[in-house]
Amino acid sequence: MDLFIYIGVTHRPEIHHVDLGRLFEAVTHGRVESKQPPETPLLCLILATDGVWDNWTYEDANRFVLDASCINAVKSDPGGARRVAASFMTRNAVYAKRNFGAQADNATGIVLYISQNNGIPNGPDFN
Predict the structure, then answer these.
(1) Is 21 within a domain?
(2) How far apart are CA 70 and CA 104, in angstroms?
(3) Does 58 map to a domain?
(4) Looking at residue 53, what is its pLDDT?
(5) What is the dihedral of CA 44, 45, 48, 54, to 10 degrees?
(6) Where in the sequence is the domain holding 57, given as residue range(s)?
(7) How many domains does the chain have?
(8) Could you report the per-residue pLDDT of 61-88, keeping only the tens digit for each?
(9) pLDDT for the residue 24
(10) Which one, of 33, 55, 53, 54, lies nearest residue 43 by Cα?
(11) Share of the chain above pLDDT 90, in %
């Protein structure tokens, strides 16, 4: 009998599929809570390691990346999303030091904004 013990990262992928068209439709028609005006839906996806999620709740991370200052930066400047991601990770480093001191885990994160109507500079266009 083979015994496998997985600690941390595994070679077995966890795959999820999300229909962005249906999600945008739900946001636009008010079936998903959004703080944004319905005419300009913007989705945000945060992909991060446990070195990030050990320090953030999903709700707090959501509030951070969807704050009006972040949304304005993303919509007005092609480098806005990069600045938001850098700010998010800088804040994570502060939280990690506070929560774990020198024992803080390494952290990697990606913040991705997706607009259905190409309402962000150099953003994808999903129709």
Answers:
(1) no
(2) 26
(3) yes
(4) 95
(5) 60
(6) 38-115
(7) 1
(8) 999 999 999 999 998 888 999 999 999 9
(9) 85
(10) 33
(11) 46
Strand partners, 110: 47
Distance CA 75, CA 122 (A): 10
101-122: burial string, b at 16+ Cβ within 10 Å, e else: eeebeebebebebbbbeeebee
Question: Mean pLDDT across the chain, nearest whole number?
Answer: 82
> Cα–Cα distance between 36 and 63 in angstroms, integer?
12
Residue 75 inside a domain? The answer is yes
**Three-class DSSP labels, 71-123:** HHHHHHCCCHHHHHHHHHHHHHHHHHHHHHHHHCCCCCEEEEEEECCCCCCCC
Specify the pLDDT at position 4.
58
Q: What is the dihedral of CA 55, 59, 61, 65, to 10 degrees?
A: -170
CA 118 – CA 127 distance, rounded (Å): 10
CA distances from 58 to 63, 121, 123 (A): 9, 26, 24
Q: Classify burial at 37, counting beta carbons within 10 Å of its beta carbon; exposed 0-12, middle 13-18, buried 19 or more.
A: exposed
The residues with which 113 forms a beta bridge, in sequence order, are: 44
Q: Is residue 99 part of a domain?
A: yes
**8 Å CB contact between 88 and 64:** yes
